[in-house]
Design goal:
By secondary structure, the protein is of the alpha+beta class. It has 28 helices and 27 strands. 33% of the residues are buried. The structure holds ligand C2E and magnesium ion (2 copies).
Length: 687
């Protein structure tokens, strides 16, 4: 007992609760700390309160049984934690108990003793911590962003659950690997540098995006934001937040690709072509090595697109684009820059031999394109401009290449043309011509010459062809060959044509009155004019204003017009014809397999081109052609006029072939109205 007594002060003064109980659990001794812990007033009070038979000190009534079971089975209880009721009744505390049995030499349990510690504060702290952790886990596992703690060289020390969603690996698997292991090789250099800046506390604090390989083998775009928390013991590394931005990144990328590529052909878009060319030219790329721009325009695209529909048109564009792409090397820029216009920028071998390359483009695109059962012969015209020879500016190079292409078109189509300064001069002239033409329309500078059509046997005047002239203030009288084509291209021909009508219709009305004869007025109409739906109405208004019957007017159209004119244009001609105007096919025999058109398109008369008349009566071929035209026209009941009759022998021959009406220098050149009158063409006497 002395030994016990030796420790009694210690027992009493222990800062934690200490006690001794009978084997049955009756409290024998409780030290002051235990009394305090129980909020009891005295040791006796505590005894009453804690004793087994005194009821439930443990909140969970099964705890006492568990405690005893553990104690008697193993002889001791270590850190047995329970919630207990205090003597004051209302309050509860958490305690941690250690206890052991004390036995006699025979092994009989004498009593047990132990300590009780109030762990309420610790417990609360722990609970708060647990809650915080659970919350953190819930948040991070559900979050689209993952947190990673890593060493300065990227070794992962901790990864939150969400890495699983982001990259398909468990957080545990990620620990020990390196942050850069999953990164796309192309993104490595930039991100390693960024990471190094974080470690030096020099980073911008901005998110950066890199591609990481997901466990499923796809690339994900992760935005990462890193900060240095090595100083913070709780972290001890760099913190990286990862956020999956694949969706937005892809969307942005898609938008950019839409702008950068032509959606139909997948080639580079015009805007992107310009940007890239400007960049490459600026990078003095072009100055060191020659480069070139090829401008490519399909020749017969419009025809196929209009007659077979847009789907076919699209297929032709796609097929042409594919051929171009295959012909070009990967570093050559191939763009679609307009409806049926393509462009190639190259600084490679092809730029050193631009003509050879242009020729191969022409050759490649001249192979027929098969769509369904139909073969389309879509050839191409190509223009080339070279840098630095022609220019070093993108805008200029493209314009020059375009001009050269235009020249190729004018030559024969299905060919190429290399830009020269002469071309540029002509182009400038052309643009001046356009400006001048617009002025000329406003200032009514157009006048009309009249060329008689006569009965070659009797010399009688049958009618006149109105031929436009431009009374240019500086250049004098300008022939139509010099401006009609440009006027057509610029959409000015309708305005000019209208001025011709406004001059010629009153003129013929006057001459009909003077002579009392049914003279006819022949007017030339181009395809572009047939797009004007109001043309028919305008003509009839003019005719009725001047009291003229519809058959007084003859509309001369060329075969090429019938080919080029839209369905509406042809309908308009048919409509005018139905109302009594005469439609005459001009320049018959030039260029096209014309006779077929006589069957397809009903006309009232034909004009034999002066090219055939020229060979009469010596060229056997011309004679044969003229003869067959005449007999065909006769069979179809068409009127015939021979153009370009210059010499008497031609007249004789034509008459012998039964072609009566003629027009040409033999009878008169085109004349202004006053000369026409003074030369006596209105005299009733025959010529
Ligand atoms: P076209 O309709 O075939 O007109 C006949 C052309 O042949 C006229 O040329 C005329 O001067 C010329 N010519 C007439 N007889 C002879 C001859 O014996 N020998 C030769 N060598 N030439 C002769 P021009 O007046 O220069 O007109 C050229 C073309 O311009 C016309 O060819 C016509 O297609 C077009 N054109 C003229 N006026 C108009 C117009 O008002 N509107 C439209 N759209 N085109 C017009
Ligand atoms: Mg004519
Ligand atoms: Mg003609």
């Amino acid at each position: 007992m002395t030994a016990h007594e030796d420790f009694s002060t210690l027992f009493e003064r222990l800062p934690i609760g200490a006690y001794r109980c009978t084997a049955e659990g009756k409290l024998l001794r409780a030290n002051a700390a235990l009394v305090r812990l129980c909020r009891a007033t005295s040791e006796d009070h505590a005894r009453i309160f804690v004793n087994e038979d005194q009821g439930d000190w443990y909140l969970d009534t099964s705890r006492r049984e568990q405690f005893r079971k553990a104690l008697f089975e193993t002889g001791e209880v270590v850190r047995f934690e329970s919630e207990v009721r205090l003597a004051t009744g209302a309050e509860t505390r958490w305690i941690s108990e250690n206890a052991h049995l004390v036995k006699d030499s025979a092994g009989k349990v004498l009593y047990y003793e132990g300590t009780i510690e109030d762990i309420t504060e610790q417990r609360h702290a722990q609970q708060a911590l647990d809650l915080a952790f659970r919350r953190y886990q819930a948040l991070t596992s559900k979050s689209q962003s993952a947190s990673i703690v890593c060493s300065a060289d990227g070794q992962i020390l901790f990864a939150s659950e969400a890495v699983n969603t982001l990259l398909g690996y468990s957080a545990n698997d990620m620990v020990g690997t390196n942050l850069f292991d999953t990164m796309h090789p192309e993104d490595l250099a930039e991100h390693r540098a960024e990471f190094a800046r974080v470690a030096l506390n020099e980073n911008s604090g901005q998110e950066s995006v890199a591609r990481h390989l997901h466990a499923d083998g796809t690339w994900r775009f992760l935005a990462s934001l890193a900060s240095d928390a090595r100083e913070d013991d709780a972290v001890g590394g760099l913190i990286v937040y990862w956020r999956d931005v694949t969706e937005t990144h892809m969307a942005r990328l898609r938008l950019r690709t839409i702008a950068e590529t032509d959606s139909l052909t997948g080639l580079v878009s015009r805007a992107q072509f310009e940007r890239t060319c400007v960049e490459r030219l600026e990078a003095r790329f072009a100055l060191e090595t020659p480069s070139a721009i090829f401008f490519i325009d399909l020749d017969n695209f419009k025809f196929a697109n209009d007659s077979y529909g847009h789907w076919v048109g699209d297929q032709i564009l796609i097929a042409s684009a594919r051929r171009l792409r295959e012909l070009c090397q990967s570093d050559e820029l191939v763009a679609r820059i307009g409806g049926d216009e393509f462009a190639v920028f190259t600084a490679g071998e092809h730029a050193k031999h631009p003509e050879a390359f242009a020729a191969s483009i022409v050759r490649l695109l001249s192979h027929p394109i098969k769509i369904g059962a139909i073969q389309f012969e879509v050839s191409a015209s190509v223009g080339v401009a070279c840098c630095p020879r022609d220019s070093q500016q993108f805008d200029e190079l493209l314009r020059f290449a375009d001009q050269a292409m235009f020249e190729a078109k004018a030559q024969s189509r299905n060919t190429y043309c290399v830009f020269t300064l002469e071309l540029e001069r002509r182009a400038r002239e052309q643009s001046n011509l356009i400006t001048d033409l617009r002025h000329a329309i406003n200032l009514n500078e157009f006048i009309v010459f009249y060329q008689p059509q006569v009965d070659m046997a009797s010399g009688e005047l049958l009618g006149v062809e109105a031929l436009v002239r431009w009374n240019h203030p500086a250049r004098g009288i300008v022939a139509p060959d010099e401006f009609i084509r440009v006027a057509e291209e610029q959409g000015l021909i309708s305005a000019i044509g209208l001025q011709v009508l406004q001059i010629a219709v009153p003129q013929i009305a006057k001459w009909r009155k003077v002579t009392g004869r049914a003279l006819r007025l022949a007017i030339n109409v181009s395809a572009r004019q047939l797009r004007d739906r109001t043309l028919g109405a305008k003509l009839f208004e003019l005719l009725s204003q001047h009291d003229l019957p519809p058959e007084a007017l003859e509309i001369e159209v060329t075969e090429s017009i019938l080919i080029e004119a839209s369905r509406e244009g042809r309908d308009l001609l048919a409509e005018m014809r139905a109302l009594g105007l005469r439609i005459v096919l001009d320049d018959l025999g030039v260029g096209y397999s014309s006779m077929a058109y006589l069957r397809q398109f009903p006309v009232d008369g034909v004009k034999i081109d002066r090219g055939f008349v020229e060979g009469l009566p010596f060229s056997a071929v011309d004679m044969a052609i003229v003869r067959s035209i005449i007999s065909l026209a006769r069979e179809l009941n068409l009127s015939i006029v021979a153009e370009g009759v210059e010499v008497a022998a031609q007249r004789t021959h034509l008459l012998s072939e039964n072609c009566i009406t003629g027009q040409g220098f033999l009878f008169a050149r085109p004349l202004p109205a006053d000369l026409f009158e003074t030369q006596g063409w209105l005299d009733t006497s025959l010529h």
